[in-house]
Amino acid sequence: MAGSKSCPKCGRKMEEGFTIDSSDYSAPSIPFWHPGAPDKRWYGLKIDKKARRAVQTWRCTSCSYLESYAP
Asked: pTM for the whole thing?
């Protein structure tokens, strides 16, 4: 989602950014969206790497509202 965006809450300018997903066991990474319900396994989640989408997050510069997309 390139370009500028207006906040749906207050109408002011939003800036593009990202959220960081981190755990005690791995380096920080950008979170992903995955279709369907979680398929839990004893070793974690079963993931189809081709189906996942990086999450983009926008933040309002005035009211701090966050809006996320998985294009």
From this structure: 0.70
Collapsing DSSP states into helix, strand and coil, what is residue 2?
A: coil
Mean pLDDT value across residues 49-65: 92
* Residue 25 DSSP one-character state: T
11: left (phi over 0), alpha (psi -120 to 50) or beta: left
For 59, counting Cβ atoms within 10 Å of its Cβ (0-12 exposed, 13-18 middle, 19+ buried), the class is middle
Identity at 53, one-letter amino acid code: R
pLDDT in tens, 23-49: 666 677 778 888 888 888 888 888 888
Are 67 and 8 in contact, with CB atoms under 8 Å apart?
Answer: yes
Decide: 40 and 34 in contact? Cβ < 8 Å.
Answer: no
Report residue 60 as tokens: 């309002």
